[in-house]
Amino acid sequence: MMNTPCDRRQFIQGSLVAATALGTGGLVGCGSNDSPPPATFVQPPVLRSVNGALSTVFNVGYAESSLDTPKGARNSRLRTWNGFLGGTTLRVKPGDRLTIVLNNNLPPNTDMMPPDHNTPHHFNTINLHTHGLHVSPSQDNVLLSLMPGDSYTYTYDIPKNHPAGTFWYHAHKHGATAVHLFSGMAGLLIVEGEVDQDPAVAAATDLDFVIEEINLKGLGSEPPVSPLYQVPDYTSPGPFDNKDSFFLVNGKYQPRLQVNPGRTVRLRVLNASTRNSMPLSVEGGVLTVISLDGITLPMAKTLSTLNLAPGNRADIMLRFNEEGSFRLKKGEFANGGGTPNPEATLAWIDVAGANQNMTLPTRLTTPAQLPTILASEVTEWRTLVYAVSNSGGPMIGGQAASNFTINGVRFDPAVVNQTIPLNAVVEWTLQNTSRAYHSHHIHINPFQVVASSTGMINGFHLTEPVWLDTVDIPPMGSLTVRQRFVDFKGLFVLHCHVLVHEDIGMMQLVKVV
Q1: What's the rounded Cα separation, in Å, for the pair 159 and 140?
Q2: Is 112 exposed, middle or buried, given 0-12, 13-18 or 19+ CB atoms closer than 10 A?
Q3: Model-level pTM?
């Protein structure tokens, strides 16, 4: 039987009740100056596998809605999965089969196919990528192009030994990826397993925390008064002005979550931003990190700040021992190439009520199938140079854009840049010769970061190898990562996950043979 999400309006109402239940009954109202306002932290719809299978339908189309923004409510028109901002959370288990019927109900493209494939184009053409899943590249095929009116059935066989963790999905049509993610076309894909049974983890309240960067421009009259706002097409150099961007959590602007003192909360945090790295922190609190990019750490890591590159995930445990209102924020970050992205409040956590005195995890159950990659295992050494030059890029809006390249070339769908034997173990040197951050991501197989030119990774000191599937290469810096190419042959990609860079050429084809 086909699973379908619950009605969006009913779901939000139900989520408000569930979120409020984390606190105390006295927190529901807002009549007292001492009481925080009602909880507004909502969860995405959730679909779970049953008897080893999960099947659903994603209908892609425009949807109009009123959206809360820093400048007040805006009537928006966005490309969406199933008619609402964001995506349904999909929960599966190792060994399951996940089936997604993707129907492209968007209107026809109005632009011609450009001569240069790296010119942003065909914003109503779509496909699907399961970011971080270790599955066959023939199943996670991002080289497909579903034109308006097309349908395609994606089938993913989750390996029986797949690590438990927080993964995600998003649209990945080259030339349109940034436009789609600026519309919020992203959702969590959770593989349940060993770490979820850890007593301290299992006792915590498990919540999705999807950070989306929405970029809206007014149509007709100029902001702040406009009848309708939508994501601008990537048809002129630099169309996505920072002043038009803001951040939502699960589709809400600065939502409030209510919890009791001493209660543990597990936030499955996804940086679904199109381009912005995010130093995350909680004023008055610390972050207990148990997982990065869906791979459980051997020991919980206590940090004051954790930086997530675009595409990174982290499972973060929170516990507040004192009452009060605590701001979960992203700090200012200089991504490079322009004005630093400013500090922003993402959500508020209101703490009040009886103390529940719960325990935070320490030692964790790590995935046995991902032992540390030793130097003695390496069979090949390769270098990837992420570079930017001021000229030679694709023509966008009649002007030559900057040239974003990997190893001196832009993406060519007819050229395989990296041919790698099955079961090879590659040590990559990732170099960044530009003054902007580039977020290296490779599909199908995770990698282990073993060295950094700055000595840091994700904002903390790299004292032991760290598993990731996406990593920021610092400006004028380098990283060393090791990667096993196991289980699956086929064709896939590596690229910069700053998607405005990927769309104009910062991507390569990889073929495992």
Answers
A1: 13
A2: exposed
A3: 0.91
Residue 78 or residue 14, greater confidence = 78
The pLDDT tens digits of the residues spanning 297-351 come to 999 999 999 999 999 999 999 999 999 999 999 999 987 766 788 899 999 999 9
pLDDT in tens, 222-238: 555 567 888 888 887 66
Q: List the end-to-end C-alpha distance of the chain, in Å, as a whole number.
A: 37
Element spanning 380, H or E: strand 380-389
C-alpha–C-alpha distance, residues 127 and 140, integer Å? 10
Tokens coding 313: 């995930």
Between residues 374 and 17, the one the model is more confident about = 374
Spatial distance between the Cα atoms of 309 and 182, rounded to a whole number of angstroms: 16
Which two tokens mark 70? Answer: 């820093």
What distance lies between CA 76 and its chain's CA centroid?
A: 22
CB 371 within 8 A of CB 304: no
Q: What does the DSSP assignment read for 121-162?
A: --TT-B--EEET----TTTS-TT--B-TT-EEEEEEE--TTP
Strand order in the sheet with 129-131: 46-48, 89-92, 186-191, 165-170, 129-131
Q: 19 and 11 in contact (C-beta within 8 Å)?
A: no
| C-alpha count within 13 angstroms, C-beta hemisphere, residue 231 | 25
Q: Across 158-276, where does the E strand assignment appear?
A: 165-170, 186-191, 205-215, 217-219, 228-230, 245-249, 256-259, 264-271
Q: State pLDDT tens for residues 91-110.
A: 999 999 999 999 999 999 99
H-assigned helices in 299-452: none
Mean pLDDT over the full length of the chain:
89
The DSSP bridge partners found for residue 4 are: none
Look-up of token digits 């309006």: 9
The CA distance from 216 to 230, in Å, is: 5
pLDDT digit string (tens) for 246-299? 999 999 999 999 999 999 999 999 999 999 999 999 988 899 999 999 999 999
Handedness of CA 161, 163, 167, 170 (dihedral sign): negative
Q: Tell me the backbone φ, ψ of residue 375, rounded to 5 degrees.
A: -60, -30
Burial class (CB in 10 A: 0-12, 13-18, 19+), 141: middle
Task: Phi first, then psi: give them for residue 199, nearest 5 degrees.
Answer: -55, -45
d(CA 95, CA 16): 33
Amino acid, single-letter form, for residue 370: L
